[in-house]
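Please predict the structure of the following assembly.
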Amino acid sequence: MDLAPALLSGDRRALARAISAVEDQRPGHEAVLAAVASRRCGVPILGITGSPGAGKSTLVSAIVDELRKRERTVAVLAVDPSSPVSGGAVLGDRVRMLDHTDDVGVYVRSVASRGRVGGLAWTTASIVDLLDAAGFDCVIVETVGAGQSEVDIAGIADLTVVVTAPGAGDDVQTLKAGILEVADVLVVNKGDLPGADLARRDLEAMLSLSDGPEVPLLTTTATSGEGVAGLVDFIPSQAGGRAAIIRRTVAAVRATAEHLVREALADDAELTTLAERVVDGETSIDKAASRWVSRAIGEAGPTG
Amino acid sequence: MDLAPALLSGDRRALARAISAVEDQRPGHEAVLAAVASRRCGVPILGITGSPGAGKSTLVSAIVDELRKRERTVAVLAVDPSSPVSGGAVLGDRVRMLDHTDDVGVYVRSVASRGRVGGLAWTTASIVDLLDAAGFDCVIVETVGAGQSEVDIAGIADLTVVVTAPGAGDDVQTLKAGILEVADVLVVNKGDLPGADLARRDLEAMLSLSDGPEVPLLTTTATSGEGVAGLVDFIPSQAGGRAAIIRRTVAAVRATAEHLVREALADDAELTTLAERVVDGETSIDKAASRWVSRAIGEAGPTG
């Protein structure tokens, strides 16, 4: 089967195989990406991240419901930057999406990111390219809020939603400051629980400490759909065209470059050896730093 | 005058000229650093940073008083990563240190960091080397809490103190999260002001949101000296030897390398050009990222 024409004509199996080819770096994945590139239109990308247990998957399901009511098609990409163990948990979350399995206007896919931290950003961006070319009206990228990856996703997304919920272990205190900073919209989910008002006040207090732009704060109850329409109103209704594609590509190249550098500079053993040479007068701090960066970057590079 | 032997024998004018040579990258500064290297003993380094207007300079003066009561000599290095305009302000702050001008056990020096963001870390580390070799019992490095530089200093310091104070414009809200994270000790200065208890409670609330190690929270009144002895108790009383010198050199090399990379990757114009080439199918995200890093790092490098 020639994947590209099939994908462009709406064949979901061809889309799934193309995504796997990109995810696993199989031969030919670059040809598929090139073949569908001209059919991208800058699909609006919604990024969803936040505390574990905040009900992100249920909220995504409710957002999909609302988008379908508005007759918009949607693809959901769940990025799991974790171990094989929680790969099962993500699969479990996806069961909640089974409501949508008979709807051709909805496509759901999980991608594991394990073993390729440096490649996560560009893999995700390339898969978004495939979903964009496949003609969806909206793409949702869902990540667990636990590290650097969701910050990268925030760069790729047109609208980043950070989700929290009342209750021990997944309230506002587990939100890292870095995650709050990438939020375009903050959501307190599980709005029907007694602690929802308190979680909202905690978030308002945290936001008052920030000197960034004002961030809308919404309350949703994903299980009943309450408040979800107001959240969906924030998603851009039109595709952004070439400018949007360039914007998300800039974010992907930057995130990938920063990963390359971070991985390359993580080798503390070599750094200590270099520092000892500085202390012994064999080189200077600036020369050691320059040499370390050059050598680390020279050895780094894409794995695919 | 041969600077190194004079510096080692306690000549303060030689020390001042050696510092200027390092600061301005004058010919021969590397020879001076090499000549005094074997006389370093891993002097304890106290890093002081925090909100503008928190009374950092007055607090440093009070710390110097307390160290002198304990018969320890001390050098103060004030790093000013700002414009020529506030260079004047720092000079003004230094006037408060005039109490110590007749005391040969105290040495005070301001260094400007303007125009050499990438070199700030290694310049500071090399000047600390000079002060260490000159035989001081303690070195205080004071920075304004306004960016990346004080985080670098925190890496070099053995004990980092973050100072805030009650009052509009310089209370806890102006402390960036990144600064709180580098604190080994938090100080609410101006403890005699009515808002001190409130500032303390605000800080305790912020600390409760952090998942890092417990940070001691002290209250001082630098103008009267109250609480300052308790703060000085946290300064290591012994020089750390070669291990301490290596530790601070690792931090300096790392900070300098990260500056090199950050400066090199800051060129957004080129990034957009590269992203456009990706969008046009001329290259891939991973290759563009790799090329961008390699080219940027190749062009970067120490200025001195």
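Chain B touches chain A through 54 residues (CB under 8 Å). The beta strands of chain B are 45-50, 74-80, 106-112, 138-143, 159-164, 185-188, 217-219.
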